Amino acid sequence: QAQLVESGGGSVQAGGSLRLSCAASGSTGSIRAMGWYRQVPGKERELVALISRDGTTNYGDSAKGRFAISRDSNKNIVYLQMNSLKPEDTAVYYCNAEARALTGWGKQTRDYDIWGQGTQVTVSS
Questions:
Q1: What is the pLDDT of residues 31-52, one digit of tens each?
Q2: Cα–Cα–Cα angle for 99, 96, 31, rounded to 5 degrees
Q3: What backbone torsions phi and psi does residue 104 show, to the nearest 5 degrees?
Q4: Closest by CA position to 116, among listed 11, 31, 17
Q5: Which of the 8 DSSP states describes residue 90?
Q6: Are the C-beta atoms of 92 and 40 separated by less than 8 Å?
Q7: Which of 12, 17, 64, 99 is the most buried (most CB within 10 A)?
Q8: Which of 19, 16, 80, 86 is nearest to 49 (CA)?
Q9: Are 14 and 125 in contact (CB under 8 A)?
Q10: In whole angstroms, how far apart are CA 18 and each of 29, 77, 98, 120?
Q11: pLDDT tens digits along 103-125
């Protein structure tokens, strides 16, 4: 199973920028898409951005127009460029991978999620 490690979180003033990184290791061939989610205490985890193997991207409403997701040429590292940060962006940001495993002696597949440990982003007013 692949593993994900996030980095790049920190504290920034409103209007500033941060760039998060997520490095995938292990069985990365199983990954179909990678993305970023965020979560604050008492709320459900929220989609921020997603990128598929073919480069197609999707963004949550909170990220549209401000954030950008990208990947390296090997598709083992994804980045989240966050601009025009607001205090409401404060959260733990988690890297996510949508993976596919072979089952039934390779004749069937099963999809599952992989999660990183999270990185804290704090935006002050």
A1: 999 999 999 999 999 999 999 9
A2: 25
A3: 60, 45
A4: 31
A5: -
A6: yes
A7: 99
A8: 80
A9: yes
A10: 28, 16, 24, 11
A11: 888 789 999 999 999 999 999 99
